[in-house]
Design brief:
The complex is a heterodimer of chains A (about 160) and B (about 600). By secondary structure, chain A is an alpha+beta fold. Helices cover about 45% and strands about 15% of the residues of chain A. Chain A has 2 domains: about 70 residues; about 80 residues, Glutaredoxin (3-Layer(aba) Sandwich), CATH 3.40.30. Chain A has a 4-stranded mixed β-sheet, covered by helices on one side. In chain B, helix 10 crosses helix 11. Chain B is built from 25 helices and 19 strands. Classes of the chains: A alpha+beta (about 160), B alpha/beta (about 600). The interface between A and B is large, with 40 and 53 residues.
Chain lengths: ~160, ~600
């Protein structure tokens, strides 16, 4: 564990150090670095932003601009199980809105929010390309197709126990 | 790598791929229906039984996604549908005994069909971009080589750069990503641009909702894209290529990485390819969930590590693109056609399709259609052939209302144009566009105002915010559409929508804004009566817009059974079982429609 030599001397763990090192000299590498941070930690903390800013020599304002521009990046931690409901056209005409509403109703949270126990978060996402399985959702990396309200209840039960 | 070595691999693996092989679809669709477990079960069974002369492999998308997971037994091309992991034993036994598992075959007109090319779904298709999908293991470059892989690159490297570009120009191929700009011209501009450093980019940021052909090509035949990019690199004089691929496509990303590694190892990427003075490398860059990055200048900003905002054009990317250098950008499907064109020649390609739109186009069929999936047809095929002959028509006895083509930039094609040949120009004429090839079929239960609103919500959400006509204009349009669907539409709203649409189209900076109003304009053109019904009669003819819908119980049909009241989630139905006919309290009703589905006497309707 090292300390960032920037503003507050925040603690930097090895994984973050490794990511910064990997993209330090890659032209336009900041987005790739942010991808790895997002995948590793589930969000991009202000510490990570400051550290990458210093190491990759990209201003904080730009990093913040990038994170808020792209929907894949998040400034706050997502739930242990991130539920992505596909809202592509094929899924929409097959009733993805009902599926999304059921998740919201059952978990008592809105899109972009995380349940108080940190277990679930919901997002509506653009076409995931699984149109053959419409309406489709993704929980973490797992795709579930041909969804309906009953399946929503079953999935919530399944993941609640995990 | 030299040609002798390439041919040696080709010979060796052509023999291997002609052996008895069990090919399991491992595209995203089938994988999420557990085809990975199925493949493992098959492999385990083969190992357990000590069988060496039959092997099982993953392969790319067969396109018939509605029937997934799909298994094909090569070289007999026996096609199994809806295969479950527990079917593994039966399949292996059948292959050993040269039999078929009848219950897993597709049934058409009461008859079982064995071979996949005999299925109605494939009968009118011609697979060029998808030619290797379903035939080879995409994680093995040698199998790609077995089917003439990298021969086109060898051939191109022994032609002059102008000759290569001439073949592409003469083939007449146009960009498969949306606008349909002639690919050869793009290559020519990029070659003629001055600069010592140039780049070749591949747009794999397939963002149009309802389109998944690029994903399937990358998952099923990643080497075709690498080979085409290398050919392009040679033609325009570039040493470096970038593939900008959506992070939402993890399987495609993984297979691209494998393909790049294997190509490097064999010397098909890297320095002095085929002993020529030609170096070429390819790097991946992941998109991060911004639709606008499918626009070429926004995509380049994103590769450069910036916000994906479009740049004004000119200067065009061919002159000043990635990192300020001349850049060639094509999409995945366009590239997938290139090796074939180089190998078989421009005249062969021109003989397919129509005069101004040559070749084939892959469409992602989705929505209210029986055979959901990926189809590749010659340009000029009619919508009717795609929807009815290939797609199997509309399920549940409903009627075709419209097909949405070209995603959020495109438009709706109504039933009266079912016989228009599908090519770039015919579609433009009727107010739709080819786009990337998403083809969403809608039945008569869909409200076109609601669909227009859906697309506007999409563009409002995805507008990058750089230019006001798009940022503010689409928002105003959405507000008007929302109020129309909520029953608050006013006289003059349609005209306002048209005025806004025309201004946004003229004044927006990039393709996203310039095409954003299209779904509204095309639904206004063909379904104006629905807008008018919403605004002037406060009715939604399709019964989709909740604020404009009332659920009624037909007093004469009601048998006073009370099932509706029991199932109503908000207690909005009142009456007495066996005594008083039931009525819906409209103030309480949330129009969920549960009562309609539960009533055994069909007495309730919207």
């Amino acid at each position: 564990m090292n300390h960032c030599e920037g503003c507050n001397g925040c603690k930097i763990d090895e994984k973050l150090e490794k990511i910064a090192k990997k993209y330090k000299n890659v032209e336009g590498g900041i987005i790739s670095a942010l991808h790895e941070v997002q995948d590793t930690y589930g969000y991009i903390s202000s510490t990570a932003q400051k550290y990458l800013s210093k190491e990759l020599n990209v201003p904080m304002s730009e990093i913040y601009g990038i994170i808020t521009f792209y929907s894949r990046f998040s400034l706050v931690p997502k739930g242990k199980y991130n539920i992505q409901v596909c809202m592509g056209t094929a899924c929409y005409v097959k009733g993805s809105e009902k599926v999304l509403n059921r998740f919201k109703e059952k978990l008592g949270i809105k899109e972009g929010e995380t349940t108080s126990d940190g277990k679930f978060s919901i997002e509506s996402v653009r076409c995931i390309g699984a149109c053959g399985l419409a309406p489709a959702i993704v929980i973490n990396e797992e795709v579930y197709g041909k969804m309906d309200e009953k399946k929503v209840d079953e999935l919530i039960e399944k993941y609640s126990k995990m | 790598m030299d040609i002798e070595k390439l041919n040696k691999i080709k010979d060796e693996y052509s023999k291997i791929i002609q052996k008895k092989r069990i090919m399991v679809c491992s595209g995203t669709g089938c994988t999420s229906s557990k085809s990975d477990v199925l493949l493992k079960n098959i492999q385990d069974k083969l190992e357990k039984d000590g069988i060496k002369n039959i092997t099982a492999h993953k392969t790319g998308c067969f396109g018939f996604c509605a029937k997934g997971p799909i298994v094909v037994i090569d070289p007999d091309e026996i096609f199994y549908e809806l295969v479950k992991p527990e079917d593994a034993n039966d399949i292996v036994e059948a292959v050993i005994n040269n039999k078929v598992v009848e219950r897993l075959l597709v049934k058409e007109n009461e008859k079982y069909v064995e071979k996949w090319h005999k299925l109605n779904f494939y009968s009118k298709q011609e697979r060029i971009a998808l030619k290797n999908c379903g035939k080879i293991n995409p994680e093995k470059i040698e199998e790609y080589i077995a089917l003439d892989g990298y021969q086109a690159l060898y051939k191109a490297l022994h032609m002059s750069r102008d000759e290569v570009i001439d073949v592409i120009l003469n083939s007449g191929i146009r960009g498969r990503g949306g606008a349909g700009f002639p690919t050869g011209k793009k290559w020519k501009f990029a070659k003629e641009a001055k600069g010592d450093v140039k780049y070749v980019c591949c747009n794999a940021d397939e963002g149009d909702p309802g389109a998944f052909m690029d994903r399937s090509i990358l998952e099923g035949d990643p080497n075709a894209v690498l080979e085409a990019m290398a050919i392009a690199g040679y033609a325009i004089g570039a040493k470096q290529g970038y593939i900008y691929v959506r992070a939402e496509y993890p399987i495609a990303v993984k297979r691209l990485n494998i393909a790049i590694e294997q190509a490097k190892k064999l010397g098909l990427l890297g320095k002095n390819i085929f002993g020529k003075k030609f170096d070429f490398n390819i790097e991946l860059r992941l998109g991060a969930g911004a639709f606008v990055c499918g626009e070429e200048t926004a995509l380049m900003n994103s590769i450069e590590g910036k916000r994906g905002e479009p740049r004004p054009r000119p200067p065009f990317p061919a002159v000043k693109g990635l990192f300020g250098k001349p850049t060639l950008l094509n999409n995945v499907e366009t590239y997938a056609n290139i090796p074939n064109i180089i190998l078989k020649g421009a005249n062969w390609y021109k003989s397919i399709g129509t005069k101004t739109s040559t070749g084939t186009k892959v469409f992602a069929l989705g929505g209210n259609i029986t055979n959901v999936g990926l189809v590749e047809v010659p340009m000029g095929t009619t919508l009717r052939e795609i929807v009815y002959d290939i797609g199997g028509g509309i399920p549940e006895g409903k009627k075709f209302k419209a097909a949405q083509m070209g995603g959020p930039s495109g438009g709706c094609v109504p039933a009266k144009y079912l016989d228009v040949p599908i090519d770039y120009d015919s579609l433009n004429e009727i107010g739709a566009m080819m786009g990337s090839g998403g083809l969403i079929v809608m039945d008569d239960s869909k409200c076109m105002v609601d669909i227009a609103k859906f697309f506007l919500e999409f563009t409002v959400d995805e507008s990058c915010g750089k230019c006001p006509p798009c940022r503010i204009g689409t928002k105003r349009m959405l507000e008007i559409l929302t109020r129309i669907t909520e029953g608050k539409g006013k006289d003059g709203d349609i005209e306002k929508l048209e005025r806004l649409a025309s201004n946004i189209k003229k004044a927006s900076l990039c393709g996203l804004g310039q095409t954003a109003p299209n779904p509204v304009l095309s639904t206004l053109k063909y379904f104006r009566d629905e807008y008018e019904a919403h605004i002037y009669h406060k009715k939604c003819p399709a019964g989709v817009c909740k604020a404009l819908t009332q659920v009624h119980i037909d007093e004469e049909k009601c048998k006073k059974c009370g099932i509706c009241a029991k199932n109503c989630p908000v207690g909005a139905i009142e009456g007495q079982v066996g005594k008083v006919t039931f009525k819906i309290n409209q103030d309480k009703c949330i129009k969920c429609g549960v009562c309609i589905t539960k009533c055994p006497f069909k007495a309730i309707s919207k």
